[in-house]
Structure formats: C-alpha cells, structure tokens
C-alpha cells in the first residue's frame, strides 16, 4: 500500500505548529549564517579605519552646528560600537527563536501527536543546524502569539536605524568635496554624473539608507502581523515570514556592500580637517573655565564678525599668556576632555 498524506506523512503535525516552527528556524539560521558575520565584518572595518585615522582632528558638530573638536577615529569608533551593539542585540533576539512550536498540532494541545515526536524531531533539527533548539514550554503561547518573531524584527529595525545613521553621517561628512564638509573621502564608484562631468555620488550610503527605510517598513508590517493572533492561531504567519526573512537578507546584502565598497576604502582629508578645526569658534569652550563663559562667548562672536580665527583675536586682545592660550586652544588636547 502507498503512503497517505494525512494518515502517514502528516499524522503528528499541523500547519499551525509547523509554520511557526519553520519561521523560527529559517529566521534564526539566516541571522546566524547571513547577517551576523556581515555585521562583524563591518564593525571590524570601521574599527580599523578608526585606528588609522585617530590622529586626524576635526570639528565636532551638534544640531549641525560647529561644536568642540573630535577626531575622525573617535567618530568611526562610535560607529563601530553602534554596529557591535546592533549585532549583539540581534543575536540575543534571534536566539529567542530557539523555542519551537512543533508538537502542539492543531490548537496547542498536541492532539494526535505520538509521545516523543517533537523531542525527536527537534533533536534532528539541532543536529543538522549545529544550534540548539527546544520544544516550546507552552504551545498555546507558541502558536497563538508571534512576539519572538516581532522581537527579532525590532532588533533588525534597531540595526537598520544604526546603519542608517552611520551611512548618512558618512555621506554628510564626505559632502562637497569643496563646497560642503569634505572631511571624509569616499571611494569613487562611478565615472561621474550623466550631466555633471566629474561628479561622484555617495551611492553606497544611499543604498544603505534606503534598505534601512525598507526594514523599518517591514517591521511595521510584522507588528501588524503579530497583532493578528486570535485565540489559538495567528493567521498572519505568511506575512511575518516574508517580511522577517526579507529584512534579514536585505540588511545582510546592503551592509556587505557598504563595507566592501565604502568603509574599506574610507579616508580622511587631513588638510581640510585641519583647516576647518582651526577656523572653529567652538575652540572658545576651553577658554571658559579660565576667562568665564561670557568673555569666551564674546571672543567667539568677535572672531566670527571679523572673519578671523579665534586664536588670532584672542592673541590680539591678550586674554591669556601666549603659552597658556596655545595650550588651551590646542584642538587635539580638546578631544581628550578634562
């Protein structure tokens, strides 16, 4: 006799426990195999570029206005830490998916499931993937709710937000190169604009930011899908699966491209950074503890109004002895705080 699809093949399973199991398995494996290695690679690349450019002092900026000096290395190291935190957060969220709904069958009671089936099947999944999986401690929660998938989507959204910020900052700091900030130099990936000869656009940053926006959209859809749990079943599982896996793969692909074609070749324009930091009026911040906030502010305003550097105006007015003025207005010293 042949095999019957229900009596023989599907006798101890239901789509209601198998599909949530498949989502957890597919998403967790995709995170570990595709996304986490790429984020680690991006983190390493940013850290390496930071170490190589730790000596480049430049203006810091808050509210898009001049602020006290930082180094290129400090900025890039901050980005590397954002990626590290995103990677760790994503890994923790993915590992929540180790709990599988398999064995709950139709509604979570396990009706028609032979004793030991789920345990044996999940042991096979553990052996084949090399990652530990376990049966859900409560099958009603595992089949009626999809919060673990939503939590992973939230971690992916947070990673996308971090990557958006990094890519957007890189694009802004490389803007110009002559009429804007121009402190960073991006690898040139294009021969030029179709209408403006010699113009090179920051395409890798633009790829990364658009993918990040899409992942935020996927997360919104997954949240609506997770709301779709009613009584013993969530019928939005296809939507959750599609958007969750798409987010993982899009982030992995875009982050890999951004690393290889942008961050690996990222450089700093030392001359431009030196010029801008010397023109910064916020160097006056270091004078405030010695001459007072109001006097330092007045000095900065006078330098701005005259178009001269803060150092020139301070020296002309003799606000402090020459050696002390040079020490306080040393941009590198200001990057160390204290």
List strands and helices in order, with pairings:
Layout lengths: L4 H5 L5 H38 L4 E6 L2 E7 H24 L3 E2 L16 H13 L4 E2 L3 H6 L2 H27 L10 E2 L17 H24 L2 E2 L2 E2 L2 H25 L5 E2 L1 H10 L8 H4 L1 H14 L3 H8 L4 H7 L2 H4 L4
Record the strand order, biggest sheet: 1-2
Order of helices and strands: HHEEHEHEHHEHEEHEHHHHHH
Percent of residues in helices: 55-70%
Q: Termini separation (Å)?
A: 84 Å
Radius of gyration: 28 Å
> Helical element count?
14
Shape: elongated
Mean pLDDT across all amino acids: 94
Please summarize the sheet with the most strands: 2 strands, antiparallel
- Report the uncertain regions: none
Give the class from helix and strand content and strand pairing: mainly alpha
How many DSSP-defined strands?
8
Tell me what portion of residues adopts beta-strand conformation.
5-15%
What attributes characterize this protein structure?
338 residues; mainly alpha; two-stranded antiparallel sheet; two-stranded parallel sheet
Describe this structure in words.
The chain has 338 residues and is mainly alpha-helical. The chain is 62% helix and 7% strand. It contains 14 helices and eight strands. The protein has helices at residues 5-9, 15-52, 72-95, 117-129, 139-144, 147-173, 203-226, 237-261, 270-279, 288-291, 293-306, 310-317, 322-328, 331-334; strands spanning 57-62, 65-71, 99-100, 134-135, 184-185, 229-230, 233-234, 267-268. The strands form four sheets. A two-stranded antiparallel sheet has the order 1-2. A two-stranded parallel ribbon has the order 3-4. Strands 5-8 form a two-stranded antiparallel ribbon. A hairpin with a 2-residue loop joins strand 1 (57-62) and strand 2 (65-71). Helix 6 runs antiparallel to helix 7 and helix 6 (147-173) runs parallel beside helix 8. The termini are far apart. The relative contact order is 0.13. The model has no long low-confidence stretch (mean pLDDT 94).
């Amino acid at each position: 006799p042949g095999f019957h699809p229900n009596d023989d093949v599907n006798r101890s399973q239901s789509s209601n426990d198998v599909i949530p199991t498949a989502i957890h398995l597919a998403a967790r494996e995709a995170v570990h195999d595709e996304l986490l290695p790429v984020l680690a690679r991006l983190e390493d690349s940013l850290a390496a570029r930071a170490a190589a450019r730790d000596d480049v002092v430049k203006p810091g900026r808050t509210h898009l206005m001049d602020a006290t000096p930082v180094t290129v290395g400090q900025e890039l190291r901050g980005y590397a830490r954002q990626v590290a935190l995103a990677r760790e957060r994503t890994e923790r969220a993915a590992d929540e998916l180790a709990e599988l709904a398999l064995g709950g069958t139709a509604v979570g009671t396990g009706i028609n499931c032979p004793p030991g089936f789920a345990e044996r099947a999940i042991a096979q999944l553990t052996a084949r993937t090399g990652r530990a999986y376990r049966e859900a401690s409560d099958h009603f929660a595992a089949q009626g709710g999809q919060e673990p998938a939503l939590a992973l989507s939230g971690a992916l959204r947070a990673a996308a937000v971090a990557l958006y910020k990094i890519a957007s900052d890189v694009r802004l700091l490389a803007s110009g190169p002559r009429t804007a900030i121009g402190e960073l130099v991006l690898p040139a990936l294009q021969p030029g604009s179709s209408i403006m000869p010699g113009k090179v656009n920051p395409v890798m940053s633009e790829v990364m930011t658009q993918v990040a926006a899409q992942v935020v959209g996927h997360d919104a859809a997954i949240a609506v899908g997770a709301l779709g749990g009613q009584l013993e079943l969530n019928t939005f599982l296809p939507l959750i699966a599609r958007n969750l896996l798409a987010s993982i793969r899009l982030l992995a692909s875009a982050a890999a491209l951004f690393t290889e074609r942008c961050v690996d070749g990222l450089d700093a324009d030392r001359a431009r950074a030196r010029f801008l930091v010397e023109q910064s009026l916020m160097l006056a911040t270091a004078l405030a503890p010695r001459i007072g906030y109001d006097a330092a502010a007045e000095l900065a305003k006078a330098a701005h109004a005259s178009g001269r550097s803060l150092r020139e105006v301070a020296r002309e007015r003799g606000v402090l002895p020459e050696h002390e003025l040079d020490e306080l207005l040393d941009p590198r010293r200001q990057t160390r705080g204290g």
